[in-house]
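Q: Sequence in, structure out?
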Amino acid sequence: MSKLRRTALFATAFLALTTLSEAAPRPGIAMLGEPALPPDFKNLPYANPDAPQGGELRQAITGSFDSVNPFIVKGAPVTGTRTYVFESLLGRNWNEAFSLYGLIAETIEVSDDRQTFTFRIRPEAKFSDGTPVTAADVVFSMETLRDKGRPNFKTSYSKISKVETPDDHTVTFHQDAGDRELPLIVGLMPILSKAQWQARDFSQTTLDPMVGSGPYVMDKIKAGETITFRKNPDYWGKNLPINKGLWNFDTVRFDYYRDANAAFEAFKSGLADVRIETEPGRWNTGYDFPAVKDGKITLEKVEQKTPAAASGFIFNTRRPIFADPRVREALVMAFDFEWANANLFNNAYHRTYGYYGGSELSSEGKPVDAAEKQVLGDAFGKLRPDFVDGSYRLPVSDGSGRDRKMLRKAVSLLAEAGWTMGNNGLVNAKGEPFTFTILVKDRDQEKIALHYQRTLQAIGITVNVRIVDSAQFLSMQNSYDFDMIPWTWFNSLSPGNEQVLYFGSEGRTVQGTRNMPGIADPAVDHAIQSMLDAKSRDEFVAAVRAEDRLLTSGFYMVPFFDAGGQWVARWNTIGRPEAQPLTGFEATTLWHNK
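A: Exactly. Output:
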Protein backbone atom coordinates (compact mmCIF):
# COMPACT_ATOMS: atom_id res chain seq x y z
CA MET A 1 0.00 0.00 0.00
CA SER A 2 1.40 3.40 -0.95
CA LYS A 3 2.24 6.00 1.67
CA LEU A 4 -0.38 8.34 0.15
CA ARG A 5 -3.03 5.64 0.37
CA ARG A 6 -2.15 4.87 4.01
CA THR A 7 -2.32 8.58 4.87
CA ALA A 8 -5.74 8.94 3.26
CA LEU A 9 -7.10 5.89 5.11
CA PHE A 10 -5.70 7.18 8.40
CA ALA A 11 -7.30 10.60 7.87
CA THR A 12 -10.66 8.99 7.05
CA ALA A 13 -10.51 6.81 10.16
CA PHE A 14 -9.51 9.77 12.33
CA LEU A 15 -12.39 11.86 10.97
CA ALA A 16 -14.83 9.03 11.67
CA LEU A 17 -13.58 8.68 15.23
CA THR A 18 -13.77 12.43 15.78
CA THR A 19 -17.35 12.58 14.47
CA LEU A 20 -18.33 9.62 16.63
CA SER A 21 -16.79 11.28 19.67
CA GLU A 22 -18.68 14.52 19.07
CA ALA A 23 -21.98 12.65 18.76
CA ALA A 24 -21.39 10.17 21.58
CA PRO A 25 -23.99 9.91 24.35
CA ARG A 26 -23.34 12.48 27.07
CA PRO A 27 -24.80 13.06 30.54
CA GLY A 28 -25.38 16.77 29.91
CA ILE A 29 -25.54 19.56 27.36
CA ALA A 30 -25.04 23.34 27.35
CA MET A 31 -26.54 25.87 24.99
CA LEU A 32 -23.10 27.34 24.39
CA GLY A 33 -19.85 25.65 25.33
CA GLU A 34 -19.72 22.77 27.79
CA PRO A 35 -21.68 22.03 30.98
CA ALA A 36 -19.88 23.18 34.11
CA LEU A 37 -20.52 20.10 36.25
CA PRO A 38 -18.42 16.95 35.71
CA PRO A 39 -20.12 13.70 34.68
CA ASP A 40 -19.64 12.31 38.20
CA PHE A 41 -21.05 15.33 40.12
CA LYS A 42 -22.64 14.40 43.46
CA ASN A 43 -25.26 17.13 43.82
CA LEU A 44 -26.15 20.58 42.51
CA PRO A 45 -23.84 23.27 43.94
CA TYR A 46 -26.66 25.09 45.75
CA ALA A 47 -28.29 21.99 47.30
CA ASN A 48 -27.52 20.39 50.67
CA PRO A 49 -27.30 16.62 50.10
CA ASP A 50 -27.60 16.07 53.86
CA ALA A 51 -30.73 18.19 54.27
CA PRO A 52 -33.18 16.94 56.93
CA GLN A 53 -36.20 15.15 55.54
CA GLY A 54 -39.87 15.48 56.50
CA GLY A 55 -42.31 18.15 57.62
CA GLU A 56 -44.48 20.47 55.56
CA LEU A 57 -43.83 23.62 53.54
CA ARG A 58 -46.81 26.00 53.46
CA GLN A 59 -47.01 28.97 51.11
CA ALA A 60 -49.66 31.68 50.74
CA ILE A 61 -50.62 32.54 47.16
CA THR A 62 -52.83 35.40 45.98
CA GLY A 63 -55.59 34.79 43.45
CA SER A 64 -57.45 31.62 42.60
CA PHE A 65 -57.35 28.53 40.38
CA ASP A 66 -59.83 26.34 38.55
CA SER A 67 -57.46 23.79 36.99
CA VAL A 68 -54.42 21.70 37.89
CA ASN A 69 -53.20 21.62 34.28
CA PRO A 70 -50.59 24.37 33.68
CA PHE A 71 -49.82 23.33 30.11
CA ILE A 72 -52.95 24.65 28.35
CA VAL A 73 -54.40 28.08 27.57
CA LYS A 74 -57.74 27.47 29.25
CA GLY A 75 -58.32 28.13 32.91
CA ALA A 76 -56.36 29.58 35.81
CA PRO A 77 -53.79 26.90 36.70
CA VAL A 78 -52.73 26.06 40.22
CA THR A 79 -49.19 26.78 41.38
CA GLY A 80 -46.73 23.91 41.77
CA THR A 81 -47.85 21.25 39.29
CA ARG A 82 -44.93 21.68 36.89
CA THR A 83 -42.36 21.86 39.69
CA TYR A 84 -43.48 19.05 41.98
CA VAL A 85 -45.41 16.55 39.83
CA PHE A 86 -43.80 16.58 36.40
CA GLU A 87 -40.30 15.91 35.21
CA SER A 88 -38.48 16.34 31.95
CA LEU A 89 -35.90 14.28 30.14
CA LEU A 90 -33.16 16.59 31.41
CA GLY A 91 -32.97 18.88 34.44
CA ARG A 92 -31.52 22.35 34.98
CA ASN A 93 -28.61 23.54 37.02
CA TRP A 94 -29.74 27.05 37.93
CA ASN A 95 -26.14 28.03 38.62
CA GLU A 96 -25.41 28.11 34.88
CA ALA A 97 -26.83 30.22 32.09
CA PHE A 98 -28.39 27.21 30.34
CA SER A 99 -27.01 23.74 30.98
CA LEU A 100 -29.00 20.52 31.37
CA TYR A 101 -28.16 17.19 32.98
CA GLY A 102 -29.71 13.75 32.85
CA LEU A 103 -33.01 13.21 34.67
CA ILE A 104 -35.56 10.87 33.05
CA ALA A 105 -33.02 10.46 30.28
CA GLU A 106 -29.64 9.14 31.33
CA THR A 107 -27.87 10.57 28.28
CA ILE A 108 -28.36 12.80 25.26
CA GLU A 109 -26.59 12.29 21.95
CA VAL A 110 -26.51 15.31 19.61
CA SER A 111 -25.17 15.66 16.09
CA ASP A 112 -22.72 18.49 15.55
CA ASP A 113 -25.32 20.56 13.67
CA ARG A 114 -27.95 19.71 16.32
CA GLN A 115 -30.34 18.54 13.64
CA THR A 116 -30.57 15.09 15.22
CA PHE A 117 -30.63 14.32 18.93
CA THR A 118 -31.28 11.13 20.85
CA PHE A 119 -32.34 10.58 24.45
CA ARG A 120 -31.76 7.32 26.30
CA ILE A 121 -34.47 6.86 28.96
CA ARG A 122 -33.46 5.35 32.28
CA PRO A 123 -35.08 1.89 32.65
CA GLU A 124 -35.92 2.69 36.28
CA ALA A 125 -37.91 5.87 35.44
CA LYS A 126 -41.54 5.46 36.50
CA PHE A 127 -44.72 7.48 36.80
CA SER A 128 -46.30 7.84 40.22
CA ASP A 129 -48.80 5.07 39.38
CA GLY A 130 -45.87 2.65 39.02
CA THR A 131 -45.92 2.35 35.23
CA PRO A 132 -42.60 2.84 33.39
CA VAL A 133 -41.78 5.97 31.42
CA THR A 134 -41.29 4.82 27.83
CA ALA A 135 -40.43 6.27 24.47
CA ALA A 136 -44.14 6.15 23.63
CA ASP A 137 -44.89 8.52 26.53
CA VAL A 138 -42.23 10.93 25.29
CA VAL A 139 -43.63 10.99 21.75
CA PHE A 140 -47.18 11.31 23.07
CA SER A 141 -46.12 14.25 25.25
CA MET A 142 -44.51 16.05 22.33
CA GLU A 143 -47.52 15.56 20.06
CA THR A 144 -50.12 16.41 22.73
CA LEU A 145 -48.38 19.56 23.95
CA ARG A 146 -47.74 20.65 20.36
CA ASP A 147 -51.36 20.20 19.31
CA LYS A 148 -53.31 21.04 22.47
CA GLY A 149 -50.92 22.91 24.76
CA ARG A 150 -49.86 26.52 25.12
CA PRO A 151 -48.53 28.35 22.03
CA ASN A 152 -44.89 28.07 23.13
CA PHE A 153 -45.12 24.28 22.88
CA LYS A 154 -46.49 24.48 19.35
CA THR A 155 -43.82 26.99 18.34
CA SER A 156 -40.99 24.71 19.45
CA TYR A 157 -42.27 21.20 18.82
CA SER A 158 -43.60 21.99 15.35
CA LYS A 159 -39.96 22.16 14.29
CA ILE A 160 -39.62 18.39 14.83
CA SER A 161 -39.75 16.77 11.39
CA LYS A 162 -39.42 13.12 12.42
CA VAL A 163 -39.28 10.98 15.57
CA GLU A 164 -37.85 7.48 15.83
CA THR A 165 -38.27 5.01 18.70
CA PRO A 166 -36.07 1.98 17.99
CA ASP A 167 -36.90 0.59 21.45
CA ASP A 168 -38.86 1.51 24.58
CA HIS A 169 -35.98 3.51 26.05
CA THR A 170 -34.65 5.38 23.03
CA VAL A 171 -36.13 8.41 21.27
CA THR A 172 -34.46 10.18 18.35
CA PHE A 173 -35.73 13.55 17.16
CA HIS A 174 -34.95 15.13 13.79
CA GLN A 175 -35.41 18.74 12.78
CA ASP A 176 -34.88 20.72 9.59
CA ALA A 177 -35.26 24.17 11.15
CA GLY A 178 -31.65 24.55 12.27
CA ASP A 179 -32.72 25.59 15.78
CA ARG A 180 -29.66 24.99 17.96
CA GLU A 181 -31.68 25.40 21.14
CA LEU A 182 -34.26 22.79 20.20
CA PRO A 183 -32.44 19.78 21.77
CA LEU A 184 -32.46 21.63 25.08
CA ILE A 185 -36.09 22.75 24.70
CA VAL A 186 -37.18 19.18 24.04
CA GLY A 187 -34.98 18.08 26.94
CA LEU A 188 -37.10 20.29 29.21
CA MET A 189 -40.43 19.02 27.85
CA PRO A 190 -42.78 17.86 30.66
CA ILE A 191 -43.40 14.15 30.21
CA LEU A 192 -47.07 13.11 30.34
CA SER A 193 -48.50 9.65 30.93
CA LYS A 194 -49.98 8.43 27.67
CA ALA A 195 -52.16 5.98 29.60
CA GLN A 196 -53.81 8.82 31.53
CA TRP A 197 -54.51 11.12 28.60
CA GLN A 198 -54.93 9.12 25.39
CA ALA A 199 -58.71 8.79 25.93
CA ARG A 200 -59.23 12.30 27.40
CA ASP A 201 -59.27 15.83 26.04
CA PHE A 202 -56.04 17.39 27.23
CA SER A 203 -57.09 20.89 26.16
CA GLN A 204 -59.83 21.14 28.80
CA THR A 205 -59.38 22.28 32.39
CA THR A 206 -59.43 19.63 35.08
CA LEU A 207 -59.27 19.24 38.84
CA ASP A 208 -58.51 15.52 38.63
CA PRO A 209 -55.00 14.70 39.90
CA MET A 210 -52.48 14.51 37.06
CA VAL A 211 -50.02 11.64 36.88
CA GLY A 212 -46.36 12.58 36.56
CA SER A 213 -42.99 11.00 37.26
CA GLY A 214 -41.87 13.67 39.71
CA PRO A 215 -41.19 13.49 43.45
CA TYR A 216 -44.71 14.48 44.53
CA VAL A 217 -48.31 13.53 43.77
CA MET A 218 -51.39 15.71 43.99
CA ASP A 219 -53.20 15.02 47.24
CA LYS A 220 -55.88 17.44 48.51
CA ILE A 221 -57.36 19.78 45.91
CA LYS A 222 -60.01 22.39 46.70
CA ALA A 223 -60.67 24.65 43.71
CA GLY A 224 -59.66 28.25 44.28
CA GLU A 225 -58.56 27.60 47.86
CA THR A 226 -55.79 25.06 48.41
CA ILE A 227 -53.70 22.24 46.98
CA THR A 228 -51.38 19.83 48.77
CA PHE A 229 -48.59 17.89 47.08
CA ARG A 230 -47.53 14.73 48.94
CA LYS A 231 -44.10 13.17 48.47
CA ASN A 232 -44.19 9.84 46.69
CA PRO A 233 -42.33 7.36 48.95
CA ASP A 234 -41.62 5.25 45.89
CA TYR A 235 -40.24 8.11 43.83
CA TRP A 236 -37.89 6.48 41.37
CA GLY A 237 -35.35 9.34 41.11
CA LYS A 238 -34.70 10.10 44.77
CA ASN A 239 -31.05 8.99 44.59
CA LEU A 240 -30.06 10.79 41.39
CA PRO A 241 -27.30 13.40 41.92
CA ILE A 242 -29.46 16.09 40.33
CA ASN A 243 -32.10 15.48 43.04
CA LYS A 244 -29.85 15.23 46.09
CA GLY A 245 -30.81 17.93 48.58
CA LEU A 246 -34.06 18.80 46.80
CA TRP A 247 -37.64 17.71 47.58
CA ASN A 248 -37.03 17.54 51.34
CA PHE A 249 -40.60 18.01 52.65
CA ASP A 250 -43.20 15.28 53.08
CA THR A 251 -45.88 17.69 51.90
CA VAL A 252 -45.94 21.04 50.10
CA ARG A 253 -49.12 23.10 50.39
CA PHE A 254 -50.28 26.23 48.59
CA ASP A 255 -53.16 28.18 50.16
CA TYR A 256 -54.88 30.88 48.12
CA TYR A 257 -55.86 34.28 49.50
CA ARG A 258 -57.83 37.16 48.08
CA ASP A 259 -54.97 39.68 48.00
CA ALA A 260 -51.42 40.36 49.16
CA ASN A 261 -52.55 41.79 52.50
CA ALA A 262 -54.49 38.64 53.35
CA ALA A 263 -51.52 36.48 52.32
CA PHE A 264 -49.23 38.59 54.51
CA GLU A 265 -51.55 38.20 57.48
CA ALA A 266 -51.48 34.43 56.92
CA PHE A 267 -47.68 34.52 57.08
CA LYS A 268 -47.70 36.68 60.22
CA SER A 269 -50.03 34.29 62.00
CA GLY A 270 -47.91 31.25 61.14
CA LEU A 271 -50.22 29.80 58.47
CA ALA A 272 -47.45 30.15 55.87
CA ASP A 273 -43.76 29.37 56.34
CA VAL A 274 -42.05 31.47 53.67
CA ARG A 275 -42.87 34.73 51.96
CA ILE A 276 -41.14 36.58 49.13
CA GLU A 277 -42.09 40.21 49.71
CA THR A 278 -42.68 42.45 46.71
CA GLU A 279 -43.95 45.59 48.45
CA PRO A 280 -41.08 47.75 49.77
CA GLY A 281 -43.28 49.75 52.13
CA ARG A 282 -44.40 46.55 53.78
CA TRP A 283 -40.82 45.23 53.83
CA ASN A 284 -39.55 48.37 55.55
CA THR A 285 -42.33 48.89 58.06
CA GLY A 286 -44.59 45.82 58.12
CA TYR A 287 -42.19 43.26 59.56
CA ASP A 288 -42.07 44.64 63.09
CA PHE A 289 -44.52 42.18 64.62
CA PRO A 290 -43.62 40.03 67.66
CA ALA A 291 -42.41 36.91 65.83
CA VAL A 292 -39.75 38.99 64.05
CA LYS A 293 -38.72 40.81 67.22
CA ASP A 294 -38.48 37.50 69.08
CA GLY A 295 -36.18 36.03 66.43
CA LYS A 296 -38.67 33.44 65.21
CA ILE A 297 -38.58 34.84 61.67
CA THR A 298 -35.50 35.52 59.55
CA LEU A 299 -35.51 38.47 57.16
CA GLU A 300 -32.95 38.46 54.34
CA LYS A 301 -32.25 39.88 50.93
CA VAL A 302 -31.22 37.16 48.51
CA GLU A 303 -29.05 38.39 45.65
CA GLN A 304 -30.01 37.59 42.07
CA LYS A 305 -27.34 37.47 39.39
CA THR A 306 -29.65 37.11 36.43
CA PRO A 307 -31.11 40.01 34.38
CA ALA A 308 -33.54 42.19 36.28
CA ALA A 309 -37.16 41.38 35.55
CA ALA A 310 -38.52 43.49 32.69
CA SER A 311 -41.55 44.93 34.43
CA GLY A 312 -43.83 47.85 33.71
CA PHE A 313 -47.11 49.17 32.38
CA ILE A 314 -47.51 47.60 28.95
CA PHE A 315 -48.95 49.52 25.99
CA ASN A 316 -51.28 47.38 23.91
CA THR A 317 -50.23 48.62 20.46
CA ARG A 318 -53.16 46.74 18.96
CA ARG A 319 -55.16 49.74 20.21
CA PRO A 320 -54.92 52.68 17.78
CA ILE A 321 -54.33 55.09 20.65
CA PHE A 322 -50.92 53.49 21.33
CA ALA A 323 -49.89 52.78 17.73
CA ASP A 324 -47.55 55.80 17.47
CA PRO A 325 -44.18 55.33 19.24
CA ARG A 326 -44.07 59.09 19.94
CA VAL A 327 -47.19 58.71 22.04
CA ARG A 328 -45.63 55.82 23.91
CA GLU A 329 -42.40 57.72 24.54
CA ALA A 330 -44.37 60.70 25.83
CA LEU A 331 -46.18 58.49 28.31
CA VAL A 332 -42.88 56.97 29.42
CA MET A 333 -41.68 60.54 30.14
CA ALA A 334 -44.79 61.26 32.18
CA PHE A 335 -44.21 58.44 34.68
CA ASP A 336 -42.56 60.04 37.71
CA PHE A 337 -40.44 57.22 39.09
CA GLU A 338 -38.49 59.46 41.45
CA TRP A 339 -41.65 60.62 43.25
CA ALA A 340 -43.04 57.08 43.41
CA ASN A 341 -39.79 55.65 44.73
CA ALA A 342 -39.60 58.23 47.53
CA ASN A 343 -43.26 58.36 48.49
CA LEU A 344 -44.54 54.85 47.77
CA PHE A 345 -41.47 52.61 48.06
CA ASN A 346 -39.18 54.12 50.71
CA ASN A 347 -36.47 54.60 48.04
CA ALA A 348 -36.01 50.85 47.94
CA TYR A 349 -35.83 50.58 44.16
CA HIS A 350 -33.76 51.65 41.21
CA ARG A 351 -35.15 52.09 37.70
CA THR A 352 -34.94 49.07 35.42
CA TYR A 353 -33.53 49.67 31.95
CA GLY A 354 -34.75 47.55 29.08
CA TYR A 355 -35.21 43.80 29.13
CA TYR A 356 -31.85 42.51 30.41
CA GLY A 357 -31.02 45.17 32.99
CA GLY A 358 -27.87 44.74 35.04
CA SER A 359 -26.35 42.02 32.85
CA GLU A 360 -23.83 41.84 30.01
CA LEU A 361 -26.76 41.25 27.67
CA SER A 362 -28.18 44.73 28.23
CA SER A 363 -27.73 47.45 25.60
CA GLU A 364 -27.68 50.15 28.27
CA GLY A 365 -24.68 52.46 27.84
CA LYS A 366 -23.21 50.31 25.07
CA PRO A 367 -22.81 51.62 21.50
CA VAL A 368 -23.67 49.37 18.59
CA ASP A 369 -20.56 47.43 17.59
CA ALA A 370 -19.85 45.72 14.28
CA ALA A 371 -21.34 42.37 15.32
CA GLU A 372 -24.57 43.94 16.57
CA LYS A 373 -24.81 46.19 13.51
CA GLN A 374 -24.81 43.09 11.34
CA VAL A 375 -27.70 41.64 13.35
CA LEU A 376 -29.66 44.90 13.15
CA GLY A 377 -29.31 45.11 9.37
CA ASP A 378 -31.56 47.79 7.84
CA ALA A 379 -33.00 48.57 11.28
CA PHE A 380 -29.68 50.14 12.24
CA GLY A 381 -30.35 53.11 9.95
CA LYS A 382 -33.74 53.70 11.59
CA LEU A 383 -32.44 53.90 15.14
CA ARG A 384 -32.11 57.29 16.79
CA PRO A 385 -28.52 58.41 17.45
CA ASP A 386 -28.94 58.14 21.23
CA PHE A 387 -29.88 54.49 20.87
CA VAL A 388 -27.04 53.83 18.44
CA ASP A 389 -24.34 55.27 20.69
CA GLY A 390 -25.89 53.97 23.92
CA SER A 391 -26.45 57.42 25.41
CA TYR A 392 -30.24 57.11 25.81
CA ARG A 393 -31.32 57.22 29.43
CA LEU A 394 -34.73 56.89 31.02
CA PRO A 395 -36.21 60.27 32.04
CA VAL A 396 -35.32 61.51 35.53
CA SER A 397 -37.81 63.88 37.15
CA ASP A 398 -37.30 66.43 39.91
CA GLY A 399 -39.28 64.12 42.21
CA SER A 400 -42.07 66.64 42.77
CA GLY A 401 -44.75 64.48 41.23
CA ARG A 402 -45.45 67.31 38.81
CA ASP A 403 -42.20 68.04 36.96
CA ARG A 404 -43.33 70.78 34.58
CA LYS A 405 -40.21 70.58 32.39
CA MET A 406 -40.65 66.84 31.86
CA LEU A 407 -44.39 67.17 31.26
CA ARG A 408 -43.81 69.90 28.67
CA LYS A 409 -41.53 67.52 26.77
CA ALA A 410 -44.23 64.87 26.89
CA VAL A 411 -46.89 67.30 25.65
CA SER A 412 -44.59 68.39 22.81
CA LEU A 413 -44.16 64.79 21.65
CA LEU A 414 -47.90 64.21 21.86
CA ALA A 415 -48.45 67.29 19.71
CA GLU A 416 -46.09 65.90 17.07
CA ALA A 417 -48.25 62.79 17.06
CA GLY A 418 -51.41 64.85 16.51
CA TRP A 419 -52.73 65.28 20.05
CA THR A 420 -53.53 68.83 21.16
CA MET A 421 -55.21 70.41 24.15
CA GLY A 422 -58.96 70.95 23.78
CA ASN A 423 -61.69 72.17 26.11
CA ASN A 424 -61.97 68.75 27.74
CA GLY A 425 -58.36 67.66 27.71
CA LEU A 426 -56.11 66.15 25.07
CA VAL A 427 -57.84 65.37 21.75
CA ASN A 428 -56.83 64.18 18.30
CA ALA A 429 -57.66 65.75 14.93
CA LYS A 430 -61.16 64.25 15.10
CA GLY A 431 -61.80 65.80 18.48
CA GLU A 432 -61.67 62.42 20.21
CA PRO A 433 -60.33 62.55 23.77
CA PHE A 434 -57.19 60.72 24.87
CA THR A 435 -58.57 58.23 27.36
CA PHE A 436 -57.70 54.66 28.29
CA THR A 437 -57.99 52.12 31.10
CA ILE A 438 -55.27 50.54 33.21
CA LEU A 439 -56.28 47.05 34.27
CA VAL A 440 -54.84 45.82 37.60
CA LYS A 441 -55.47 42.81 39.82
CA ASP A 442 -54.42 43.89 43.32
CA ARG A 443 -54.09 46.93 45.57
CA ASP A 444 -50.31 47.20 45.17
CA GLN A 445 -50.68 47.51 41.40
CA GLU A 446 -53.59 49.90 41.87
CA LYS A 447 -51.44 52.19 44.01
CA ILE A 448 -48.90 52.64 41.21
CA ALA A 449 -51.65 53.06 38.61
CA LEU A 450 -53.36 55.80 40.64
CA HIS A 451 -50.06 57.69 40.90
CA TYR A 452 -49.66 57.46 37.13
CA GLN A 453 -53.30 58.48 36.65
CA ARG A 454 -52.75 61.73 38.59
CA THR A 455 -49.70 62.65 36.51
CA LEU A 456 -51.39 62.00 33.18
CA GLN A 457 -54.43 63.97 34.25
CA ALA A 458 -52.15 67.02 34.52
CA ILE A 459 -51.52 66.87 30.75
CA GLY A 460 -55.15 66.30 29.75
CA ILE A 461 -55.22 62.50 29.56
CA THR A 462 -58.11 60.66 31.22
CA VAL A 463 -57.09 57.34 32.76
CA ASN A 464 -59.49 54.88 34.34
CA VAL A 465 -58.01 52.42 36.82
CA ARG A 466 -59.97 49.18 37.03
CA ILE A 467 -59.23 46.37 39.48
CA VAL A 468 -60.42 42.87 38.53
CA ASP A 469 -60.01 39.43 40.04
CA SER A 470 -57.31 37.01 38.92
CA ALA A 471 -59.60 34.98 36.66
CA GLN A 472 -60.82 38.07 34.80
CA PHE A 473 -57.30 39.42 34.50
CA LEU A 474 -56.02 36.13 33.07
CA SER A 475 -58.87 35.95 30.56
CA MET A 476 -58.39 39.53 29.36
CA GLN A 477 -54.62 39.06 29.27
CA ASN A 478 -54.84 35.90 27.14
CA SER A 479 -57.22 37.56 24.67
CA TYR A 480 -55.35 40.92 24.72
CA ASP A 481 -58.56 42.66 25.75
CA PHE A 482 -56.95 45.59 27.54
CA ASP A 483 -55.46 49.03 26.93
CA MET A 484 -52.67 48.88 29.49
CA ILE A 485 -51.69 46.32 32.14
CA PRO A 486 -48.78 45.79 34.52
CA TRP A 487 -46.70 42.93 33.20
CA THR A 488 -43.36 41.23 33.83
CA TRP A 489 -41.02 39.21 31.61
CA PHE A 490 -38.43 37.15 33.46
CA ASN A 491 -35.40 36.87 31.22
CA SER A 492 -32.37 34.70 31.88
CA LEU A 493 -28.69 34.80 30.97
CA SER A 494 -29.53 32.42 28.14
CA PRO A 495 -32.68 33.67 26.40
CA GLY A 496 -33.89 31.50 23.55
CA ASN A 497 -37.08 30.19 21.97
CA GLU A 498 -39.26 31.77 24.65
CA GLN A 499 -38.39 35.13 23.08
CA VAL A 500 -40.62 34.18 20.14
CA LEU A 501 -43.45 33.72 22.63
CA TYR A 502 -42.57 37.02 24.31
CA PHE A 503 -41.91 39.31 21.36
CA GLY A 504 -42.41 37.43 18.08
CA SER A 505 -44.70 38.95 15.45
CA GLU A 506 -47.19 36.07 15.49
CA GLY A 507 -48.10 37.05 19.05
CA ARG A 508 -49.85 40.15 17.80
CA THR A 509 -52.76 37.98 16.67
CA VAL A 510 -52.25 34.52 18.22
CA GLN A 511 -53.88 34.42 21.65
CA GLY A 512 -52.17 33.05 24.74
CA THR A 513 -48.62 34.29 24.02
CA ARG A 514 -46.61 36.64 26.25
CA ASN A 515 -46.45 39.31 23.56
CA MET A 516 -48.66 41.66 25.55
CA PRO A 517 -47.67 44.82 23.63
CA GLY A 518 -48.55 43.26 20.25
CA ILE A 519 -45.05 43.75 18.85
CA ALA A 520 -44.82 42.88 15.15
CA ASP A 521 -41.36 44.00 14.04
CA PRO A 522 -39.37 41.96 11.47
CA ALA A 523 -36.15 43.39 12.92
CA VAL A 524 -37.01 41.98 16.36
CA ASP A 525 -37.88 38.62 14.76
CA HIS A 526 -34.50 38.63 12.99
CA ALA A 527 -32.63 39.46 16.21
CA ILE A 528 -34.36 36.57 17.98
CA GLN A 529 -33.49 34.21 15.14
CA SER A 530 -29.88 35.39 15.22
CA MET A 531 -29.85 34.64 18.93
CA LEU A 532 -31.09 31.12 18.26
CA ASP A 533 -28.56 30.58 15.47
CA ALA A 534 -25.56 31.84 17.43
CA LYS A 535 -22.70 29.35 17.79
CA SER A 536 -20.41 31.47 19.95
CA ARG A 537 -20.95 33.58 23.05
CA ASP A 538 -19.92 36.75 21.17
CA GLU A 539 -22.50 36.13 18.44
CA PHE A 540 -25.11 35.41 21.07
CA VAL A 541 -24.45 38.57 23.11
CA ALA A 542 -24.57 40.73 19.96
CA ALA A 543 -27.96 39.28 19.00
CA VAL A 544 -29.48 39.73 22.46
CA ARG A 545 -28.24 43.30 22.72
CA ALA A 546 -29.78 44.00 19.31
CA GLU A 547 -33.10 42.64 20.52
CA ASP A 548 -32.88 44.67 23.73
CA ARG A 549 -32.02 47.85 21.80
CA LEU A 550 -34.92 47.42 19.38
CA LEU A 551 -37.43 46.71 22.14
CA THR A 552 -36.24 49.59 24.31
CA SER A 553 -36.28 52.05 21.42
CA GLY A 554 -39.80 50.90 20.54
CA PHE A 555 -41.16 52.17 23.88
CA TYR A 556 -43.48 49.22 24.42
CA MET A 557 -43.68 49.65 28.17
CA VAL A 558 -43.42 52.22 30.92
CA PRO A 559 -40.52 50.63 32.82
CA PHE A 560 -40.87 49.92 36.51
CA PHE A 561 -38.08 49.18 38.94
CA ASP A 562 -36.26 46.42 40.79
CA ALA A 563 -34.56 45.88 44.12
CA GLY A 564 -31.54 43.97 42.85
CA GLY A 565 -32.61 40.86 44.70
CA GLN A 566 -35.45 39.23 46.59
CA TRP A 567 -36.78 40.16 50.02
CA VAL A 568 -37.43 36.88 51.79
CA ALA A 569 -39.03 36.22 55.16
CA ARG A 570 -39.13 32.71 56.62
CA TRP A 571 -40.06 31.20 59.91
CA ASN A 572 -37.01 29.63 61.53
CA THR A 573 -38.64 26.22 61.28
CA ILE A 574 -37.52 26.42 57.62
CA GLY A 575 -33.86 26.05 56.73
CA ARG A 576 -31.99 26.71 53.50
CA PRO A 577 -28.48 26.16 52.14
CA GLU A 578 -26.11 29.10 52.48
CA ALA A 579 -25.50 29.11 48.72
CA GLN A 580 -28.35 29.99 46.39
CA PRO A 581 -28.29 29.77 42.58
CA LEU A 582 -27.88 32.64 40.13
CA THR A 583 -31.67 32.98 40.00
CA GLY A 584 -31.92 33.72 43.73
CA PHE A 585 -34.12 32.12 46.37
CA GLU A 586 -34.85 28.49 45.48
CA ALA A 587 -37.75 26.85 47.36
CA THR A 588 -36.91 23.33 46.22
CA THR A 589 -33.73 23.39 48.37
CA LEU A 590 -35.51 24.23 51.65
CA TRP A 591 -36.01 21.84 54.56
CA HIS A 592 -37.85 21.63 57.86
CA ASN A 593 -35.74 22.28 60.97
CA LYS A 594 -36.66 19.66 63.53
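DSSP finds 19 helices and 25 strands in the chain.
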